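Lay summary. Proteins are chains of building blocks that fold into shapes, and those shapes determine what they do. In this project we predict the shape from the chain. Here is one chain we studied, written as its sequence of building blocks.
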Amino acid sequence: VKAKVFGNEINKKQTVALITDALKNGKTIDSDLVYSRRSRNNGVLGKSYIEISLGSQHLWYFKDGKLVLDTPVVTGDPSIDHETPTGLFEIWSKETDRFLRGFNPDGSKYKVHVDYWMQIDYTGVGIHDTKGRAAYGGQIFNGAGSHGCINTPINHVRTIFNSAENGMPVVIY
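And here is the predicted shape, written in a compact code that computers can read:
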């Protein structure tokens, strides 16, 4: 699984500027690299993470090496080219009482309220509840899936939201 939004991200431009400035001025510097983003786990998966299997349509949440919960989910709908991305991500934004907005395949706009939102990538994919969904798991995602997000039952997404911190690794395969 390739890392997508995970680990440390070096700000190359600022790091090069720092070194170039020191060289121009004949100075010796003892400095860390300049980072645009620092991972909570410094780029290591660790013992606390969320694992999502697209094939099984299932999510497992591990905290300190122990399984906290597992639940069926509904992921992105491949029939409308909205597959959930695979890779290694991390939660980098958490919000409650949020509206998700976007476009349907027919070009119409949608606006959906969620109680719990945890964004994991730069395209707007996240883990969240879905009020209009009565069932999870199985083959629901084929023809009735999300726009790429991981739809999770409210009681389970609440548990994750209240326990997981920004920087929590998310593995999707």
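What the prediction tells us: The chain has a mean pLDDT of 92.
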